[in-house]
Amino acid sequence: MAETDTEPIKVLLVDDDEDDFIITSDIIHDIPARVYSLEWEPSFEGALKKIALKQHDVYLVDYRLGAHDGLELITQALQNGAVAPFILLTGQSDRETDEKAMRLGASDFLIKGRLTSFDLERSIRYSMEHAKSLAEIQTLNAELEERVAVRTQELAQTINQLKETNKSLFEAQQEIKKALQKEKDLNELKSRFVTIASHEFRTPLSTVLSSASLIGKYKLTEDDDKRQKHVSRIKSAVSNLTGILNDFLSLSRIEEGKIYNVPTDFDLRAFMEEILDEMQGYIKMGQVIRYHHQGTPATVTLDKQLVKNIVLNLLSNASKYSAEGKEILLTTVVEAEDVKIQVQDQGIGIPEADQNHLFTPFFRAQNATNYEGTGLGLNIVKRYVDIMNGTLSYSSQQNVGTTFTVQFFKKPCV
Questions:
Q1: Count of domains observed in the chain
Q2: Which helix (H) or strand (E) holds 86?
Q3: Other C-beta atoms within 10 Å of 28: how many?
Q4: Which residues form a coiled coil (predicted)?
Q5: Which domain holds residue 383?
Q6: Model's pTM, two decimal places?
Q7: How far is 68 from 42, CA to CA, in rounded Å?
């Protein structure tokens, strides 16, 4: 694999037409600044054998391969453990094939008749960066596996301690069951993390890749609207990636015990107004957040940053799962014994069968799978509320809406 800009990038072209190999060779030869080493393989079976050797940095795969096609090759190669990126080449523009290729694991989709050295160089560069990002996720997976090994060692130590302290057989069995369940939960958490992270990173990265490639094609002044459209898509994708990373970072800090409850005195009503101003740039077109406060004075003693994180998360969810033009209600109530914060939407609601799992890490309700997200938001909100010694409740009806209520007591409950 290529390590530095001075080493050639090794490219394997899988195409049963020698003329296409000659054309591709000429295009690669015209790419400035970098050196490429192009190898040609005309057969489906031969390509699988060469890919298995993992000696190339990127694969250019023609859609038509005799009795097979490029999508079959990509699917089988990935199942066999291929790690370098695949770029699908086709003779004509076909959005359905493009989307199918991305779903199956291709990094990009290029049209041979329109291919230029600029397009190919950009596609190879972005595809290799994409593969590097996925490799980093796999590294994180390895680190999680190491944590599993540490937990397994802790389990063995627990068993020895139980034997040494002469605990009863029943007590020992209960402790072992708890430790084994903890192992199982950690393994499941690891698997869900890797699956969701891989999927959620691939979608915005593919958007950035395709939009960045298309921007280069719009060179005239009258194409400015098209350029701006793809710039907006890139900004949205980067914002989505930032949100995903923030969720993972928040969960990590909570797991490590680095989130503390630090109450201060502040005006709750004025603080909510500031949060609403911040939310205006994130809600959907036509949506309106209506705010109502009850109670005088509005001064409360709470952790200001945790309250902000909770409210922003609940409002973002309300906007995400509601249609354009819908109204979102934010209510705060300050009473003698407690403080309540309530967010009500007119969105898709939560199916009754899913409600018991709502605060489980990485859980997505069955009617929310088409919406972007990690399934961590409500789990993080619940844990923030717990850190502040509050309560979080909700009511929801599918296709009607959902209401979340956060309650903080001014003095401990008896």
A1: 3
A2: strand 86-90
A3: 21
A4: 134-192
A5: 264-409
A6: 0.49
A7: 12
